[in-house]
Each structure stands twice: as structure tokens, then as C-alpha cells.
Amino acid sequence: MIHIKDVWKKYGHIDVLKGLNLDVKQGEILVILGRSGAGKSVLLRQIIGIEKPDRGSIEVDGVMISDIKKNEIYKAVKDMGMLFQGAALFDSMNIEQNTAFYLEQHGDPITGKKFSPAEIKNKVEEALAMVGLDGTEKKMPSDLSGGMRKRAGLARLIVYRPKILLYDEPTTGLDPITAQQINELIVQTQNELKGTSIVVTHDIASALYMADRLALHQEGQISVVAEPEPFFKTDNPTINFLRENLTHNQRKPQ
Amino acid sequence: MIALVRTKSLRILETIGDYVSLVIDVLLSALKKPPSWTLIREQLFHIGVLSLSVVAITGFTTGFVLAAQSFYQLGEKGLSGVTGVLVAKSMITELGPILTAFMVTGRVGSSMCAELGTMKVTEQIDALKSMAVNPNSYLIAPRFIAGIVMIPPLTLFSTMMGIFGGYLIAVNLFNLPASSYFAPMQIHITLFDVATGFIKSFVFGLLMVTVCCYRGMKTSGGAAGVGRATTQSVVTSYILILLSDFFLTMGLNLLHQKMHFDWMKGI
To answer: Whole-model pTM above 0.90?
Structure first.
């Protein structure tokens, strides 16, 4: 589904990604763990085509994202979506306009069919209800709390039902209850859309709750990829530390 | 030292290349898929209608000063009769385009840069890209179109206000006859002067919008970065407007002289 081969990315004089390799399977939730500044978000930005790698290849669903021409990238990422760390809601638009944005721009991501205003309104209401934000349609992003903004960002993502969903630290800075709500929404979205999700997080409890597989991002590379049980049995200083500090033992519901 | 000069030169060349590439991309994307009328209308209102009062006051007061200066400087030599022509010629060919461009840069260009810069540092522009929307086409093209469409009429409006302001001072304060203010204009203000003012306003509008949008799109470094980018956008726009004014004045006058010379040779 997603094949990343020998990807390098440099900012200034610092190599953030150093020959990174990773394969993501169709229909799974892959959680990438790693320390701050390791380049996890950079990797997501390369996958969705916001930035290009300096070297290496990224293939998504048969399309070579890393080699694609600048003006063709927008067509190639139409059925992908990303939840940004700070939600990145458009602050000149209210929550309804934010959520409706993709549908108004592109219509249906697969067929390209344009929706009527009434259809868009229904879809927006449905998506906002799904994230528990019904009634906030006319509010501006600045009127919402951090957790509500994240949920609004999630509504903006799920409203167009992308096949590939990327989440950049979806629970960072949230209280445990809101974080758990976001975790549940991610799993629920995955189950409904049957897509492929990559979640970047520091939150071990969230990772264990969501992950089909876990990947450890270290020094610009993915050093370990495995299902949760074998992942935590791997002898690696970071994983040993995580194992020792693990206080939660929640698993993805079967 | 040589290495430093080399690095700086390379950075300047890189910036120019980046800027030109952005302008080409905006033009191509606007031609390929014109931005929606709603977005253009919003910017036309923001750049044009909301700037009317600022450019009117600027033109009007400049007309006052020009008339007063002309009267005091030329009156002693018995040339107070050319006050109207001096005000009109200065406003049409120089002060109208320059002052309008400066005022619009300060009012609109800075806000464009700050808005785009804030969108950049809060990942809103990345969010647009992630939703398969080209930010050059969605954000810059409507501003670009509105800028080049609105700045010439704003300049015309400011120029007219300047001539009218000069008239009020010359006739009411210095008791010049109204006919001596306007009559010489019909002889001395040529189509070339009007064309010069129009071409300059168009070029200044183009520079202002593209420089401010470019700076906004290249913003980094949080709130402080937005502040820096906004200042840079205004300073860079002012410098480019002044430089281009000189080159346009020279180029257009040389062209005009050549055309006039060729025409004279013809007869």
C-alpha cells in the first residue's frame, strides 16, 4: 500500500531522515513512536506530498509520490488526508465551512461528483456529530478549546472519507479523557472507512489502544516494526525504557 | 569574506528564482483554473473599496501641498499660472501612482503578508495542500487578480483627488482664476502622461501583490517570523516600487522620444 524506500531529508545541515525504509499494509493502523524532533512529522509530510524527499522513493497505492510533478501532486493526494498537530483549522472560516471545505472544492474524492449545498450540510452535520461537535457549526476555531479543535480537525478529515489517513500527534496536549475519545474516534473511523492509517504519537497508551503494528523511529530511520506484543519484547534501549515505564495496558478492542 | 559574499549572492539569486517561479505558477494556475468569483470579489472589495478613503486623503492632501509649493516657488517668478499643470502633471505621472502604491502596500500588502504568514506558520497552508488544493491558486491568484485590477483605478481616483485638492487651494486660498488652473492642462497634459501613470500603477500593483504574497508564503519562525516577514514585505515592495519607477520613467520617456523622433522624420 505505502512503500517508503531509502528516504533522505535534510533541513539546513541536519539530516532528519537518513535512509528510512517502511512498508505500510492496506487496512492497518500503523503507529510510529519516537522522540521529539526525530522526524516523525517530516515523514508524514513526505507521504502526503507537502514536501519532497531529497533522495529515495515513496510509493502510495501505486503512485510514486516522491517523483511526481509539482502540478500533479494535488490530484495524486485527493484520497489522502492528514490531521495536523495543531488541527490547522482555517481561522477565517467557521467550523461548518472548515468541515465543508474539501467537499466544496472537490466533491466526492473518488467519483468527483459535485454535492449540492444540502448534501454538504448533511455530511458536515454527520461528521460533526460523529466527533461530538454538533451545535458548534457557526463557531470560529478561536472559540474552541484545544481538544475541540482537534476533534473539528478530525471531522474535516473524515467528512470526505479518504483512503489513507495520517495523524500527527492526535492526542498531544489533551487531557486523558479527551485523548481517549480521540483514540476511539480514530479506531472507529478506521473501522468505518476501511482505510489505512498512520499515527505519529508519543503517547504509549494511545499507541497500544490503536495500533495493529508499531514502528520505532530512531535517528532518522525506522529501527523496529512489529505487532505490539513482539514490539515490546524487542531488545532495544528505547523500547526497554518504554516497557519499564508502561503504566497502561489497554489493547485495541477486537 | 569571499565565501560570505558568495553565500549572500547565492541566497539573493535563490530568492529571485523562487519569486519568479511563484509568479509563473500563480499565472499558470490562474489561467488553467481561474479562481472562484467569490474569492476574487472578496479581494476586490478588500483591496479596492476599503482603500478608497486612504488613497483619497493621500491624493487630496498631496494636491494641497503641491499647489501651495508651486504657488510660493513659481509665483515670485510670475509663473503662478502653471500651478494647475504642475499639480496635474506631478499627480498623473509620479505622485498618484507612487503614493497610491505606497498607501495600498501599507494597508493591504502588509495585511496580505501577515495573513498568509500566519497561515504558513500554523500549518493552514499545509492543510490546504493535504486537501489537494493548490495554495497558489486558492490564496494568491485571487489577490493577484484583484491587485492588478484595482490599483490602476485607485491611482486614477487618487490623482483626481490630488488635482481637485490643488484646485481648492489655488483658487480659494491663492485667488487664482479657475480657468487658469484647468485651461493649460488641456494643452500640456498629454496622452503619454496618462499612459505613463497607468503603466506605472499596473506595474506597482503587480510588484506589491507578488512581493507581499511571496514573503507571506515563505514565512517561518512563529509570531516573530510573521512580524519580520511583514516588515520585509513592505520594505522590499517600497524599494522595488521606487526602483521600477525610475526605470519606467527612463524607459517610457526614451521610447516616447524615439517615437516622436521617428514621427518627425516621417514628415
So the answer is: no
